[in-house]
Design brief:
This protein is mostly beta strands and 203 residues long. It has two domains: 34 residues; 124 residues, no CATH class. Helices cover 14% and strands 47% of the residues. The strands form two sheets. The protein has a twelve-stranded antiparallel beta sheet with strand order 1-2-5-6-7-8-9-10-11-12-13-14, with no helix packed on it. A two-stranded antiparallel ribbon has the order 3-4. Strand 3 and strand 4 form a beta hairpin. The longest helix is centred in the N-terminal third of the chain and has 29 residues. The protein is elongated. The mean pLDDT is 86. Keywords: Membrane, Transmembrane, Transmembrane helix.
Length: 203
């Protein structure tokens, strides 16, 4: 008799425990958490199908770039943000890289197969050199992954501010510069890089 009571008790207990665990799991699944502070090495923001669309990572866990479904080796592994399109290909990101000779900060947005627009800051560690700029590329229509055509560079470098506009062959055709002393120069170049027109000291 005692054995039957114990068996019934265990059966009821296990049933209640199972239901309670199921309810807890459902609650956790739909629960919205709020944190004041969290330490984490990597965060994957995913869509409704579980596919990553945004990755926040330290440099050690930053995934390699994927273009047209193929994985490539990253030249430098930065910490930052990685944007992914609906195919899972890299389409831009925010990179923070500390190198031996300089700190580099960059924000980039990509075409489907290459860099399109980038903003970069480079601050020298071992010297007083620095660069900040905006880079704009044409899309390489050959279909080769990672290929782009450099067209416009707007930069300030060690006190010299300049604008360089390239032709479709990536060779400079117009250079506008104001140096650190405030001297303005405008040069027009031919396809061989020879200055054909120049305006200097336009004060």
């Amino acid at each position: 008799m005692k054995s039957r009571v114990s068996s019934k008790f265990l059966l009821v207990y296990s049933s209640i425990t199972t239901v309670a665990l199921a309810m807890m799991l459902m609650a956790f699944k739909n629960m919205k958490e709020s944190f004041e502070e969290i330490d984490v090495k990597k965060i994957n923001i995913v869509d409704e199908k579980g596919k990553p669309v945004l990755i926040i990572s330290n440099k050690d866990k930053m995934p390699p770039p994927v273009i047209n479904g193929k994985t490539y080796k990253r030249a430098i592994s930065p910490a930052g943000l990685l944007f992914l399109d609906e195919k899972g290909d890299e389409c831009g990101g925010l990179a923070i890289t500390d190198m031996k000779e300089a700190n580099i900060r960059a924000l980039a947005f990509d075409y489907s197969n290459a860099d399109a627009l980038g903003m970069i800051v480079k601050d020298g560690k071992t010297s007083n050199t620095y660069t900040a700029g905006l880079l704009i590329n044409d899309k390489d229509t050959s279909g080769k992954p990672g290929m782009n055509i450099s067209r416009i560079a707007l930069t300030t470098e060690d006190g010299n501010a300049g604008l360089v506009i390239n032709g479709p062959d990536e060779k400079p055709r117009i250079k506008i510069l104001v140096d650190k002393q405030g001297n303005p120069v405008i040069n027009v170049l031919d396809e061989k890089g020879k200055v054909v027109k120049s305006l200097v000291n336009l004060k």
